[in-house]
Amino acid sequence: MTDAKGLLAQLFDDAYRQRARMALLTASGQSPKWQVQGLKAAKGLVDWLEQLGAGGGTPLLAALTESGHWLAARRKRYPAEQQKLLVVTDGRLKAIGALPRLECPGMLIDIERGPIRLGRAQELALGLQLEYQHIDKL
Q: Which domain holds residue 129?
């Protein structure tokens, strides 16, 4: 999780320097939660990142569906805006099931580590039509 936080901190910093707009949806607890929606990146995201924990089940599929709806609405409202999606996950889902169509280029970063790896993040990336990278290769 430390490496994932470092990666996200760098991403937030790059977005802040470029004055890029971003959305941040977290999948923890019982339901996904928007942290930021379409705002310019801010330094305050680093504070949120420091408090980010891990463990337990996540509503990842619900978050992906919510992301798909938000991206579609955003495309309608700002058709010239360039969108990119980043999914950071260990892929530890009970079942992948039906995946939403995101219609957005992006990347899935696999943060699964440990002696037993299920490898579901790669399957998830393929199903979502996202580029796949393991965090160890970045």
A: 2-137
